[in-house]
Amino acid sequence: MDVDIGFDDILRDFERDSRPNEANITKLKEDDIQELTQAWISERMSPELLDYKDSLIERLLSRIREQVEYIELNSIELQTQEKDIKLQLMIIESELDRVNFILRSYLRTRNDEDIVKRLSEHETAYMEKHFASLIQLYNSLFLSQLPQHLQALDDTSGGQSMIEEPNFQKPVFLKVLEDIPQNIAIGDEEIELTKGNIYLIRYSAIQKYVHSGDVALI
Amino acid sequence: MNRIQVPIWLAQILKAQRKCNIVPPEWLNLKTLKELYQHEVTDLESFSELPFNWLEISKIFFENAPDDLSDEIHKLKSLIQDLKEIRMIKIKKGLTLINESHLQLDNLSLMEINEIRPFVVSVMGKLTSMSEAVTQDEQEVEDEMESEDDDASMYGKE
Predict the structure, then answer these.
(1) Which string of DSSP letters, residue by residue, matches B36-60?
(2) Which parts of the sequence belong to the GINS subunit domain (chain B) (predicted)?
(3) Mean of all residue pLDDT scores within chain A
(4) How far is CA A150 from CA A85, A144, A145, in A?
(5) How far apart are CA A208 and CA A180, in angstroms?
(6) Would the CB atoms of B10 and A91 count as touching at under 8 Å?
(7) How many Å apart are CA A103 and CA A101, to the nearest integer?
(8) b vs e for A111-130, b when ≥16 Cβ sit within 10 Å of the residue's Cβ?
(9) How far A83 CA sits from the closest chain B CA (Å)?
(10) What residue spans define the domains of chain A?
């Protein structure tokens, strides 16, 4: 019977969370997680760096801090507390783990790509530091031993560029989220993008719809 | 007993604590799965409408909540397996249509896409760069012909 009471309490908590006046807030929070997940997937699948989700990340980070504080506050008194707080903490922790995983992976994926204007402030600082240490390492290891004209790291002559550029012709899988009134043209072919359908198309052809959010990379 | 909608990861935790039963989705039963299989076999042009994560969802049920399913689990498992296989066969047949511009894959699930992703992306990437090389060559030939025409007209004037 104990178990049943605990369970009912949890349900009541949920109901409280989903009451009309708070329903909107809950919905907004859910949408944020959804948006993060989609941003993460798109970032992983797109050959270029996408816009940084500045305000979204801010909101999520502050909510993560709140939850961590909540866990810390309650776990001190755990010994004396009822059993169901334990379960509640476990659920919060699980969700934190899930969100943190996606968030970290999102940020790390972005740092593997590089177009400076879309980086956030922190990312730019990180990248500059990383690049400076890398050059220093290369210099001390072997570059200083090479003839001067071979020391450059951004040589584009000789038929081969040392600067990697995103391949916009790379095919990507995408799902159409909003009907796109205008057909897209590839070569001589015209392709109609219908809501809900899944396509494999080169990135350059649908790039602007990825930016506008009308299609989602999958 | 109250019914409430929660994310599936939360349901898994509650289920592990024996605090809830999970209501299976309306397609995860013998009757519907058989119908879906029938659709896959009869309609070779399209895929039946299963959720984007149907393989993952069925796996979660088989492993964490087998007692919440209304049919015998080994029968369900084998039907899911059959569905997976027939769809993969159809996908592979469909891949013969691949070209350099696009491929339409409606109703494919995430797992199925991931299974073909490495192969399809690299093949289409190669086709794209080949067709580009061809159009570039053609362009160059055209340009040359045009400049020859120009030359000819210049000679004509003289």
Answers:
(1) HHHHHHH--SS-----TTHHHHHHH
(2) 27-130
(3) 79
(4) 64, 10, 10
(5) 11
(6) yes
(7) 5
(8) eebbeeeebeeebeeeeeee
(9) 12
(10) 2-113, 171-217
For chain B, what is the mean pLDDT? 87
Amino acid identity at B127: L
Residues 6+ away with beta carbon under 8 Å from A182:
none
Contacts of B91 in chain A (CB under 8 A): none
Architecture, CATH, for domain A171-217: 3-Layer(aba) Sandwich (3.40)
CA nearest to B116 within chain A: A173
Environment class of B136 (CB within 10 Å of its CB; exposed 0-12, middle 13-18, buried 19+) = exposed
**CB–CB contact B102 A200 (8 Å):** yes
Which positions in chain B touch A94 (Cβ < 8 Å)? 9-10, 13
A199:B132 CB<8 A: no
Number of other residues whose CB lies within 10 A of the CB of residue A12: 11
Per DSSP, what are the bridge partners of residue A173?
A200
Q: How many CA atoms lie within 13 A of A141 on its CB side?
A: 6
The predicted-structure confidence for B19-29, as pLDDT tens digits, reads as follows 899 999 999 99
Note the CATH number of domain A2-113. 1.20.58.1030
Q: Which domains does chain B have, with CATH numbers?
A: 25-157 (1.20.58.1020)
Question: pLDDT tens for residues A26-38?
Answer: 888 888 998 999 8
CA neighbor of A39 nearest in space, from A105, A120, A124, A125: A105
What type of residue sits at position A21?
N
Token pair belonging to B105: 């894959």
Token digits for A89? 């903490």
Tokens of B37: 């299989």
Chain B residues touching A218 at Cβ < 8 A: 110, 113
ipTM value > 0.85 = no
Task: Tokens for A157, please give them.
Answer: 């002559």
